[in-house]
Amino acid sequence: MNWKKKMAAAVALSSALVLAACGNGGETASSEESMTASKDAVKIGILQIMEHESLSAARIGFLEVLKEAGYVEGDNLIVDYQNAQGDQANLQSMAERLAGNNDIILSISTPASQAVANAEKENPVLFTAVTDPIDAGLVESAEKPGANITGTSDQGPLKEQIDLLLSVAANAKTVGIIYNSSEMNSVLQGDQAKQLLEAKGVNVEVMTVTSTNDVQQVMESLVQKVDAIYIPTDNTLASTMATVGKIAMEAKIPVIPGSTEMVDGGGLATYGIDFKELGRQTGKMALQILQDGKSPSEIPVEYPTTLNLVVNEEFAKALGIDPASIKLPESSNK
């Protein structure tokens, strides 16, 4: 499928449908919708590593922008959504299914993006929720991606998050860091967080997991050794934040995670990324391809533009902390 040949027809059709009835708010197109869609419908493939709030929020934000621009599922838009459910062995076959059959592929997470980049060498690919796309081998540079792939990074404000953690747990002598050792983005953030904490004179206890099955046992061990916990934007931990939060709350250990959605799932607080807004940023990049005819090689990688301080009031009260007292220190560079 040549996406450029279909672009003009898709743009014309989308303009006519801007005020039409909207799609289903971020859910993927059903087979019935695909059957009723126009023959000139834009086809979007989506590969997501697993189901959890942050990644799903990015997907929803992406599709929301397309809907607002007049791309309506079942009319002029077909979405093929693939979810690996945390099994990296599924990624390559799913990526190959999407390759060559879509006008744009959206890959969500570093492993999903690497799988898509290996499978799709011609049609446009957009990634999101990738911490370091250069180190991951996805682009040559942020300014000049160099091939058929670009997107948005979820690189969060680590320094500010560590400052927030130390303001909440001012007397902490040891801080724990937990992440999945097989997630490249998590290893990178974990190492950076460790350096920042040690530079502040804080001891660091790093513990890792290899799957969601390990989280409960590792967390139960970690809370016995530390005074506070930091969690990167790790997909495995994000999908198990309810378990993480329950264990930490019972142990009276504050948890500062990497994203706002992770706070909602079971963290205490963070100054972090709004993944829905990150997905919307990526959706606007898709419009540059679909409507302006740009190649991904011409579109620089973007970084989060929306950062929020989010506090879990229930968690704060369980720790005897006034939620209103949790603020980003004035000394922290914003």
Structural commentary:
The structure is a single chain. By secondary structure, the chain is of the alpha/beta class. It has 13 helices and eleven strands. It has helices at residues 3-16, 31-36, 53-68, 91-98, 110-119, 158-168, 184-199, 215-222, 235-238, 241-250, 260-266, 275-290, 313-318; strands at residues 42-48, 77-83, 104-108, 125-130, 149-153, 174-180, 203-209, 228-231, 255-257, 269-273, 307-311. Strands 2-1-3-4-5 form a five-stranded parallel sheet, with helices on both faces. Helix 5 links the parallel strand 3 (104-108) and strand 4. Helix 3 (53-68) packs parallel to helix 12 (275-290). The chain starts with a helix and ends in a 16-residue tail after the last helix. Mean pLDDT is 90; it is low at 8-31.
Short description:
The chain is α/β, with parallel strands linked by helices.
Keywords:
334 residues, alpha/beta, 40% helix
